Amino acid sequence: MSGTAQALRPPAPDSVDQVEHLDFHHSMERDELTGFATQQHFSGCLDRLIQRRAFRESPLTLVLLQLANFYEISAWVGGEEARLLLARLAALLKQTAPGEAWLCRCRNHEFALLLFDCDSHRLSELGDAIHRTLQCQAGDLVPPQLSLACGIGSVPIDTATPDCTVAFARARHDMWQRQAGSLAGQPGFTTSQEPELVERVREALARRSFRLSFQGSISFRSQALQRYETRITLLENERSLPAGSFLQTAVKNALGEPLDRLACELAITALAQDCHRQFTVNISPNSLVSAEFPDWLADNLPAGLARRLVLQVSELDILITQHHLSRFCGRIRDLQVGLAINHFGASEDPFRYLALFPANLARLHRSRLQQLTESPDRQRQLASMTRSLHENGLQILAPGIEKFSDLPLLWSAGVDLVQGYCLHRPSIRPDCEFVEELELNLD
Hints:
There is one protein chain. This protein is an alpha/beta fold. The chain folds into 2 domains: 3-180, Alpha-Beta Plaits (2-Layer Sandwich); 194-418, TIM Barrel (Alpha-Beta Barrel). 40% of the residues lie in helices and 19% in strands. Helix 10 (256-271) runs parallel beside helix 12 (293-300). 39% of the residues are buried.
């Protein structure tokens, strides 16, 4: 074992009841490949610690480690070699982790660690040590054209942690923020405001105090369906709170999936009232990583409505949940529900991920639509992107259009649908006046 790993091992935590350690290890349900605890066993033991408020006696920290591109490595090396690599990585993780840490193999190439008496300095050292160890000592099993990408997120277990589900969601949210960087443009709340906001969202979910807003998407080509994008809105004291004000906090606290389910329920109810409409529902990363969400949708979606429902996922969420997408997309496509990518083009190489997320529609990132009038180069770049998307079988939607004068350029660039305040403002009813003909002047 390396000297760094030795230095990271704390003494046995006498302040935590040793019976709980014995219960975790001696009655452990083990994963056959790694020898670590199964997620079910790990979660049950963690829940008991939380209920007993053991963190008052000894600080507890949950760490989530994600092998972010393991699906890609598996495709190169094959299934058996991938299993050997995963077992090797697990052994290296066990070697690097503190001796008293609880280790767990989670679904989809993730591991969890529960640390005892681990301060922020030691946690930072441990994260660096894990990165170094996995990338250096497992390099011979990784194809030379690839490198192992690891994501790490952590969260303290404290009085604001109601159960292990929320703990995992917060650790995953921390990992996503580290991977993606700061989320520019998202309305935020201070730490002191967050517990109050979480409680407001929970109470609103219990009361079902939400509704959808609808914004029409106008097609340049004849289409049988009237298409709307929906957004969920929290209703509170005769006023409404838009999704951007609470969604990130909800995702961090494992409330994204309940919100997504409610949004789908509301959309399904509205779809049943008019057979000429199609609704797009935005889905959070909580639902992307959930094994239960596709099954829930299958149980609650009438077969006749499936083709008129589209689930939309942001490009950022696709990038940070890549190894969950195969299962999610397979189940959703089996239901004949459509898929759309929001903010397409936010990353440098968005086409790389189309194979992971077989979408029907790309809603462009606004940066791809800036300065079109002033820049012929920008027009050519947009036309090139739309051609490539069409070749991949996707339609293209341009959002945020504020002026009718922008429409001719978008049409000539190959855009299929447009959305913006000059066409239809978000409304509590799907009341867009869709026109049969639209005359565009390219002069």
